Amino acid sequence: MFWIISIAIALASALLICLPLFARKAKGDAGAERNDAEVYRDQLSEIDRDEKSGLIEGEAAAQARTEIARRLIAATRATAKAGMTSGKGVSIAVTLFLCLLLPLGGILLYARIGIPDAPDFPLAARFDSADPDSNILIRKAELRLEERPDDGRGWEVLAPIYLGNGRFADSVNAWRNAIRILGADARRYGGLAEALVAMNQGRATAETREAFANVLKLVPGDPRARFYLALADGQDGKFDAAIAAFEALKKDSPADAPWIGVTDAQIARLKEAKEQQAKAPGSPTVDDVAAAAELSDTDRAAMIRTMVDSLDSRLKDDPDNIEGWKRLVRSYAMLAEPDKAAEALQKGLEAFPPDTENGKALIALANELGVKAGDATQ
Predict the structure, then answer these.
(1) CATH 1.25.40: does it fit domain 286-377?
(2) Contact 227/249 with Cβ under 8 angstroms?
């Protein structure tokens, strides 16, 4: 029954593919193209008459003939092409090949080199295979850890494998278990921090900071930990601290260190972000901060509301300011206005699409604040 259904589906598909071979071009199209060619021939005759009667000069007549001749050639070619249809013999040959020869060739090839009588290879048999694939090895390790959850070495071995397979949350969990069972270790904290960064799409969370800080306690000056901690400062808007940390890392590193190039790129990016932040609409001045400190809670809230509304209004005229959108989303979240925060996030993502670096940073900030904007943040 399986083979009958398979052959029927294959034949139906082949026939659908072959139908266009028997289609013919509409006669009206070819007739129109032939009419165009006749019109161009008449125009050539008219030019000859006008030239003889002196209505058009010789050079102008030559140019007109050249242009009309070009159009005539194009129309003639189109007419010839329109008149060409797939010959009946060719259509039948292609149909026979697709419907009969190709399926028959596949069956014969499978009968010769295939293994139609091969038995099923269930999961249990794969576990006993002498050469199991990586997924089987991972599953075996997981089953062992289910029986022995305090096997710290097993968690430590499995954690980087999870990370390499894109299972970031599982990698984080494995590193946490390894640290809990085996204790503090720079390699384990570094692995945990990197898995956290991957799981959070490049964002450094509080747990990420703590993990890299522990690395520095165990290995002072570790360049990877210093790099990511500086990156975390930049993500938090602490541009001066981040720039200083990156410049210090560069100064303490060999000139040919592999991270020098990316460090320079981060410094340039942060300096640009710092300039943009200074230009962000709605930024409070020193006088604004001093005045706010002397206000009552009610007046201070009103002042904040005015500044947020002003920021929202100005971003309509300056939508290409990522720092302004970050500040607006954060402000509405802090004011406990989730609908307006979500609206600000949506508008920010219209200016900076989710697949861009700024868009991803905006989404990450919104996730930290618990702000959602529907499918736009997916």
Answers:
(1) yes
(2) yes
Q: Long-range contact list for 10-15, CB < 8 A, 24+ apart?
A: 10/103, 11/99, 11/103, 14/95, 14/98, 14/99, 14/102, 14/103, 15/95, 15/99
- Tell me the DSSP string of 262-276: HHHHHHHHHHHHHHH
**Whole-prediction pTM value?**
0.49
- Cβ atoms of 250 and 230 within 8 Å: the answer is no
The more confidently predicted of residues 103 and 192 is: 192
Q: Tokens for 205?
A: 């969370």
Look up residue 87 and give its two tokens. Answer: 């010959």
Enter the tokens of residue 258: 């592999």
Q: pLDDT of 167-179, one tens digit each?
A: 999 999 999 999 9
Neighbours of 267 (CB within 10 A): 20
CATH number of 142-269: 3.40.630.30, 1.25.40.10, 3.40.50.300, 3.40.630.10?
Answer: 1.25.40.10
- In this predicted model, what pLDDT tens digit does every residue of 189-225 receive, in sequence order? 999 999 999 898 788 888 999 999 999 999 999 999 9
